[in-house]
């Protein structure tokens, strides 16, 4: 029967405990999310951003807020272009909208309301989209009619 020293047992327990802690930390980092709706301001956006709503996680981040076009152009680091045809951007409420049950025969109006919960359609403003083959990337749009910014990104 093998004999173990106290030192080897302490090393084994430390290694196992550290491994479990690392796995737990990775799991929490990948599954944790933060969300809020219509807050006055958040520290990770410029002071000019107001009425902020967001969903932030590792796998999906989306936020929208009010801001003037001039401040948006100062803030945005991406190459935005004028919108020439309507564009859609997934909103912070995308996941909550997917859980809404419309029943077996929704009307067209009910379908449009449901879609607006999770997707913003912008017809007049500025837009940038960059999507990779994996589906990851970024979409950002400024809606001139509402003075509202929509931003969505995911890493895949």
Number of domains: 2
- Give the distance, in angstroms, between the N- and C-terminal Cα atoms: 50 Å
Question: Taking strands numbered 1, 2, ... along the chain, how are they ordered across the largest sheet?
Answer: 1-2-3-9-8-7-4
Number of strands: 9
The secondary-structure class comes to alpha+beta
- Per DSSP, the total helix count is 4
Per DSSP, what share of the residues sits in E-state strands of 2 or more residues? 25-35%
Q: What's the helical proportion of residues?
A: 25-40%
What is the radius of gyration?
Answer: 22 Å
**Order of H and E elements:** HEEEHEEHHEEEE
Low-confidence stretches: none
Return the average pLDDT rounded to an integer. Answer: 84
Categorize the overall geometry.
elongated
Largest sheet entry: 7 strands, antiparallel
